[in-house]
Amino acid sequence: MSAPGEAARLAAVHSYRLLDAPRPIVLDELTRLAGSVFETSMSTVTLVDADRQWFAGATGMPDGGGPLSTSFCARVVDRRLSLIVQDALDHPVYRTWGNVVGAPNIRFYAGVPLVDEDGHMLGTMCVLDDRPRPAGDRRLDMLTTMAGQAAGHLAAIRSRMLLTEIGDELSRAISREEDFVATVSHELRTPVTTIQGYLELLVENEELAPYRRLIDPIQRNGERLVRMVDHLLAGTRPAGAPLPLLRGGTDLIAIAEAGAAACRAQAAQRDVRIVVEAAGEQVRVSGDFTRLSQAAEQLIRNAILFSVTGTTVTVRVIADGLEVSDEGAGIPEEELPYVTERFYRGRHAREQAVPGVGLGLAIVDRIMRAHDGTLAITSPGVDRGTTVRMVLPG
Q1: Minimal CA–CA distance to 115: which of 162, 149, 85?
Q2: What's the pLDDT score for residue 171?
Q3: CA–CA dist 341, 362 (Å, integer)
Q4: Distances (CA, A) of 114 to 12, 81, 153
Q5: In angstroms, rounded to a whole number, what is the distance separating the alpha carbons of residues 358 and 159?
Q6: Which CA distances in Å does 330 have to 216, 303, 310, 315, 349?
Q7: 321-325 and 387-391 beta bridge pairing
Q8: Residue 70: is it exposed, middle or buried by C-beta count within 10 angstroms (0-12/13-18/19+)?
């Protein structure tokens, strides 16, 4: 890249003021979604500076960035093209890198350019894993969609900063809240995800096979703790604070698939099938891809928790939203008016010790209200299942 072009690119990177700053929670949520879709242990929104990379959003990474000399993301920025590395140990250059032969033991990498609204190449949206794997075209398309979402969120973050500087008190409040949430998220999630990474290495060690029965419950409960932290952070924002949205054209089928992908491991543990039903290849709506995928995930996860072993959770893509149905416990009629209240847990959840803190439907309801949409919950009765429909305005 020419010197003037690189100078402009670096000025754009610095304009977001995220280098060495707390990670915005919305970017962490986006990386978690990307990791779920690709089923990888690591994912990042990476900003590439002059001599280093910085993770503005990250899941599963042991640090906040690193040098460009061993950066896959820097290669994407240099070439301005997507990069897929199915097995880094098979590459003549990458196989010597410290982050490949040592922690975090990167074997697989898929990254797409992160380009802002002014056309500046800021960095990448990428997923990484410590195991080699292929990358299908459909998933790569979804990663490109997420990169567009990341760029949009970055633009919104910068706009709020500018408003704050000219004295907008609401923006100040939002910025303070997001800084707090980002710090709490980092302090709680980072140690747990590091522990999870080391547990995965222990699981792969054949010499420790006799201890697998001890390692597996630790791993499951670590994953449960991460989900609970995410749940609490998403569900306990101040009631008066607006939920930041990045509205744009998005695909409901991709949202349904992303939500289902995030829940497949939990469904497998409970022997519950997830089926996504959709007519056609795309159903376009206006909305925030990250938030709507989060809502879909919450609905599917709820349905799994209340499902009986061997049954099916069905996710239907309709013209203006999604519908999630289960064949589980159902909801008594007298409890239906309260199920979207924060921390509300019905009698069945309490008596059967169903995991959760009663925030799932409250999170979905808030996301739908932010979109000017609706959430409808129907249940024919006890043990006859539940159907939850989220509908976006036309």
Answers
A1: 149
A2: 57
A3: 6
A4: 12, 10, 11
A5: 34
A6: 31, 10, 16, 17, 11
A7: antiparallel
A8: middle
- My answer on whether omega of the bond before 67 falls inside 30° of 0, hence cis, is no
Which residues is 322 bridged to in the sheet? Answer: 317, 390
Kindly report, residue by residue over 243-260, the tens digit of the pLDDT: 667 777 888 999 999 899
Average pLDDT over residues 78-98: 95
Residue 130, both tokens: 């410590």
Other C-beta atoms lying within 10 Å of the C-beta of residue 109: 26
Q: Measure the CA–CA gap between 249 and 44, rounded to whole angstroms.
A: 23
Question: Residue with structure tokens 């879909």?
Answer: 296
Tokens for 81? 């093209």
| CA–CA gap between residue 59 and residue 65 (Å, rounded) | 12
Angle between helices 212-235 and 25-38 (to 10 degrees): 140
Three-class SS of the chain:
CCHHHHHHHHHHHHHCCCCCCCCCHHHHHHHHHHHHHHCCCEEEEEEECCCEEEEEEEECCCCCEEEHHHCHHHHHHHHCCCEEECCHHHCCCHHHCHHHHCCCCCCEEEEEEEECCCCCEEEEEEEEECCCCCCCHHHHHHHHHHHHHHHHHHHHHHHHHHHHHCCCHHHHHHHHHHHHHHHHHHHHHHHHHHHHHHHHHHHHCHHHHHHHHHHHHHHHHHHHHHHHHHHHHHHCCCCCCCCCCCCEEEEHHHHHHHHHHHHHHHHHHCCCEEEEECCCCCCEEEECHHHHHHHHHHHHHHHHHCCCCCCEEEEEEECCEEEEECCCCCCCHHHHHHCCCCCCCCHHHHHCCCCCCCCHHHHHHHHHHHCCCEEEEECCCCCCCCEEEEECCC
For residues 269 and 307, is the Cβ–Cβ distance under 8 A? no
Q: Are the beta carbons of 383 and 311 closer than 8 angstroms?
A: no
pLDDT tens, 377-391? 999 876 788 999 999
Distance, CA of 46 to CA of 64 (rounded, Å): 10
- Structure tokens belonging to residue 227: 């989900």
Alpha carbon 26 to its chain centroid, in Å, reads: 8
- Residue 129: CB atoms within 10 Å: 22
How high is the pLDDT of residue 25?
84
CB-based burial label for 24 (10 Å; 0-12, 13-18, 19+): buried
Residues in the chain: 394
Residues 6+ apart with CB under 8 A from 228: 357
pTM of the model: 0.69
